[in-house]
Predict the structure of IS1239 transposase.
Amino acid sequence: MFKGSCCQMKCDLSIRKHLCAILVVTTNTGKAQRCKTIILQKGNFDNRYRRLIERWKLENKSNREIAGLLGKAPQTIHNEIKRGTTLQQVRKGVYKKVYSADYAQTVYQSNRKRSVKKLILTKEIREKILHYHKQKFSPEMIVKKKQVKVGISTIYYWFHNGHLGLTKADMLYPRKRKGVKKQASPNFKPAGKSIEERPEVINLRLENGHYEIDTVLLTREKNHCLLVLTDRRSRHQIIRLIPNKTAESVNQALTLLLGEHRILSITADNGSEFKRLSEVFPEEHIYYAHAYSSWERGSNEKEVYKKFRCCTKLLARVLT
């Protein structure tokens, strides 16, 4: 069995009659000998079958020989080779027909996708789904527990495309929308200096009067918010309620604060509400932090919990 210089292949005929075929591959390389056994399950062709067929066709084996080696009917091998035959360029202007395992696999997968029968939404199926939906059953429960013979993904498809007369919001567990990632405004043009130009007397917190500024929204809607200024050295906070988060509202509140407090410099982030600070405050004393660098305004950012604790008290005083 192991003699000879070419590749010898033998198939166990007794096992071939059952659900699988056992392929024994024996190779000789000088004095060393190696035996490899591959078990091919019965059913549709997969890429392992096609690779073997491609190799054997290059060795000029007939379709009947290949059928005997794989334990398949000769007509099955004929149909497979017909499906996977394509033109291969030999040289310029010259082509020949060859069997390609990759091409055959691509054609097979394409045919499988087209062979799926479209499920029609009948009146009976629609009434069943709507009935169980009113009883708070999810699509998974409708299919698995109530034995409605429809794919789970199909029910979701009907939901999303309005075939059931419902919307995504009517689903038992609607999918949450992904939050929009905050991005720096492309139109932001600082009217002051970069934080890198801020003097050491401010960086080392040696003097009072140098403030960091920020805004805090009270709710998710566009309404009142808080304007918060924090002294870098003393941590003294100035909090004012403003009607909205706009540059006009910030400037109006800041104008009043400048008459009440000694403010020597302001450090702000790149928010659009701070892009016009130079209209009410000297431009040479305004410093803007880098985008997505909240640690550069540590005094203001670290007070976030204090900001929210004081919101309730402040609103109570304003509204009463």
Q: What stands out?
A: Residues 242 and 249 are 6 Å apart (CA to CA). DSSP finds twelve helices and eleven strands in the chain. The longest helix spans residues 304-319. Residues 8-114 form one domain.
